[in-house]
Amino acid sequence: MAASVRDDLLAAGLAVFDRVGFEAATVAAIRTRARASNGSFFHAFGSKKELAGALFLEVLRHYHAAVLAALDPVPDAEQGIGRLIHAHLDWVVSSRREARYLFEISRSEWGDDVRDAQRAQNARLAEGIERWRARLVARGELLPMTPVMFVSQLIGPAQIFCRAFLSGRDRADPRAESATLIACAIRALVPPDRINKQ
């Protein structure tokens, strides 16, 4: 029962934050949407900020799971680049409300309480990508670079399209640019003599 109420409150929080933003959202509006009592809310979460942090971690976990699923079964370099970019774009479009929350609405100042848990989740994602990438770097199938540089070259350009889509500045589906984004990432991450030769 408690898990169900907590899940209902998280879902309601996501809907309210998406509609009015974090600052304008109220505990009362979240409770009303979740059909939860004041006591139920404060039994599950100490504050709106605490709910927001828990929601951030939940959404981040879903996003990371979608990304890591792209690496199973283990792909070669070009396949992996393509799958990771597709996974990012597909998740943003199919989970638009969650993506808006993760990339547009969430704020660092109320995330301090979940910073350690966020770092742990990010580390698991990085480890999963690195397990796939390190073998390919060692075989000369991916260019050597830091993990942070790799991810920025892989997802950074796609994220620009996604942010424009999530904010409403561009209504076009960012997946329409996937072939170009993948081709550019391959040129940035795969040695020129290994492109399309794996």
UniProtKB/TrEMBL annotation:
Keywords: DNA-binding. GO terms for molecular function: DNA-binding transcription factor activity; transcription cis-regulatory region binding. Pfam families: TetR_N (PF00440). The keyword DNA-binding applies. Residues 3-63 form the HTH tetR-type domain. Residues 26-45 bind DNA. InterPro entries: DNA-bd_HTH_TetR-type_CS, Homeodomain-like_sf, HTH-type_TetR-like_transc_reg, HTH_TetR, Tet_transcr_reg_TetR-rel_C_sf. This is TetR family transcriptional regulator.
